[in-house]
Amino acid sequence: MGRSRSRSSSRPKHSKNSKHSKKRSRSQSRSRDKEKKMRSKSREAKRSRRRESRSRSRSNTAASRREKERAVSPPEKIDIFGRALSKRSAVDEKQKKEEEEKKLLINSTFVLQAEEQLRIVEEQRKIHEERMKLEQERQKQQKEEQKIILGKGKSRPKLSFSLKASE
């Protein structure tokens, strides 16, 4: 937090000549100074290492991004007015093409199924016609047999009976 603007006392808060400060020996002050220097040196070393690694990673990521963009992105498409189409529209076009291909596949399967059904219906019609012909022939044969049995037409010679009166 920041310092308050008005101070109640005239003396600074962190002065070396304060009442409660203890006097230190020279060896203690030197060791503390060394520690501070060591700390600051190690901190500086860490900071510089961090900076270097960050700059390396930034340059690596930027370069790799550029390479990926070059490798992955297809050449930009241009509409009829000479404007470059966005990547989103290219993706949309790709999806539309895939959907159209799916529709074509579905349509072709429907067409194949319809053709198969037509073929089956045609075969069934032919089988039905065959059955009807056989049925008609059987009925004709049956009528002829009945004619022979009943003696209609000229199938059997006529029999004539005469009764002679006996005298």
From TrEMBL:
Q: Which InterPro entries match?
A: ARGLU1
In terms of Pfam families, this protein maps to:
ARGLU (PF15346)
Tell me the segments the record calls region Disordered.
Answer: 1-100, 132-167
Bias regions of kind Basic residues — which residues?
1-29, 46-57
Q: Which GO terms describe its molecular function?
A: cadherin binding
**Gene Ontology cellular component annotations, sorted alphabetically:** mitochondrion; nucleoplasm
Comp. bias regions, Basic and acidic residues: 30-45, 64-80, 89-100, 132-147
Similarity comment: Belongs to the ARGLU1 family.
Q: What is this protein called?
A: Arginine and glutamate rich 1
